[in-house]
Amino acid sequence: MRLLIPFLSCVLLSSAAAQDAGVEGVFSLGVGARALALGRAFTSVADDPTSIYWNPSSLPLLPQKQLSSLHIPLYLSSAYDFFGFAVPTRTLGGFGMGAMNVRTGDIEGRDRDNVSTGDFNYSETEYLLSYGGMVPRIPLVSRVLTPLYAGVTMKLVHQSLGGSSALGAGGDIGFLYTPTALRGLRLGLSFQNVLQPTLKLRQTSDRLPLSVRGGVSLSSSLGDVGQGLVTIDVHKATSRSMKYCVGAEFNVRRLFSVRAGWDGDPALGFGVTYWKLGFDYAYVSREPGPLHCVSVGFRIGRTIAEDWIAVKRREAEERTRRAEAERKAMIEKHSAIAVELYRKEDYFGALGEWQKVLAFDPENSDAERWVGQITDKIQSIQEDVIKDQELLALIKEQIDSGIEFLTKGNYDGAITQWNKVLSLDPTNATAREYLEKTRTLLAGEISEHSTTALQLEREEKFVEALSKWKEVLELDPQNSAGLAGVERVSKRIEEAQHINLGFEYFTAGEFDKSAIEFRAALALNPENKTAVEYLRRSVGRKSLLEISGDKEVWRLYLKGIEHFTRGEYEEAIRVWEEVLELDPENENAVRNIEEAKLRLKKASER
């Protein structure tokens, strides 16, 4: 057994320096060839399934479901392996699971007298189950640390040696802060073995030590060339001296990466990405010999952003389908009512119903034919009713004009014509009947359009609702409900347009433009949570919280947004220049002024 101890020390990859008295766990090396090539400075970087080991709080920030594996051939037929699976969600945080294993076989056992006792095997496996999510807003804390993410990993450790085995349970916790004021900056903190697993193998009991890691990383775009990353970790384990880890990475157009790191020993590596597959290699200098680490990853399905866009597209298609079905149902309903009213010789009622059919389907040939037929019928009736020959020509002209207005749905013009007839013949029963029924039709159509518009608003079909409110105003230009509805729905449509355009810019990576659109949406509706959230994600150098810190600056800033959204670019520039007088460092105002000047220039070139 004495010969076994130094052998296992090598196999279990203790990375302690010779002068350290403490002992780290068998899995202290870490997981992921990329992380190992970065000198294990991965606490704040963790952006793949290895997050379940390094820092589970980063799981919700993964763009899509991913698989990751690691294999390290060790010495004397030993091996070190990892497999992980991560599932981020848009609203529920991120989930992960995985397993780590180190094993060796054919170890020669000897007793105290150095007599061979036969060969035996050693294996240790750690099963991990993780969850990470955004920390809810907490007074005071949220003012400083927003957004803040937290995560937890529960693990089960199984150890076997020869015919003996041990089982222990433990847990890790981690935190991640991604300040919006500086895009690309991430700060991570991880506590491994907060719940320390205890393993009792035969007569020996071991407790895995508490390990604390803190890290900061900064990634930055290098234009068309690629992207760079610098990361630093500080690592302290129980009874071990402080260890510093640093790493750097250069990524060429998300296709090829080169890496270097140092954690007391140097490490190098590279990575290749093709389609949804990723391959990473790391060379890690260790005693008694270097480690060759290989990882393979696979991204599954669509990204969270793509899923969200697909859901919205399906919802829009379903709304369109329902609207078309409702339109056809209304055409059938009003057509049936019109035919029945005509049979009962209620020609005005029938005419009104056919007008409603034409409102739903302006090209409806049956409705056009019936309108012509009813118009001829009404004109025939009028010719029989009017008795005064001296006024016949003039009254007929006015009535014909009124009927023409009525058939075109111009109730205001028709009412004017009926009043002209009554001014010539105050006792004209036909004109009075036309006038009363026209007003009834007008009121009924206004009521129906208003009711439909309100229903469409409740169903968030704002384009259709705006059309209905405009139809109300065409019937009655001074209708207060119609005026208010047009103003209200126009703002909602404009808000939605800014949101949709913001999403397009956001998905395309044009974050400055997306921020302008989300700010414009907030100017129309400061309570729009989607705009607030995606503005936070889009802002590159200054957060919404910092912009709104000065009430006067914030008031002028929003006033400029209002002018901008109405196309009043010169006025918007003037207001934003007032913002710069109060806050010369306000980058958002500078960018907005540039955008407004660009739009002025485009307008002048037309």
UniProtKB/TrEMBL annotation:
Keyword tRNA processing attached: no
InterPro entries: TPR-like_helical_dom_sf, TPR_2, TPR_rpt, Ycf3/AcsC/BcsC/TPR_MFPF
Entry keyword set: Repeat, Signal, TPR repeat
TPR repeat residues: 395-428, 495-528, 553-586
Pfam families assigned to the protein according to its UniProt record, in alphabetical order: TPR_2
SMART domains named in the record: TPR
UniProt signal peptide: 1-18
Protein origin, superkingdom: Bacteria
Keyword Repeat appears in the UniProt entry: yes
Gene3D superfamilies: Outer membrane protein transport protein (OMPP1/FadL/TodX), Tetratricopeptide repeat domain
Protein name: PorV/PorQ family protein
Organism: candidate division TA06 bacterium DG_26
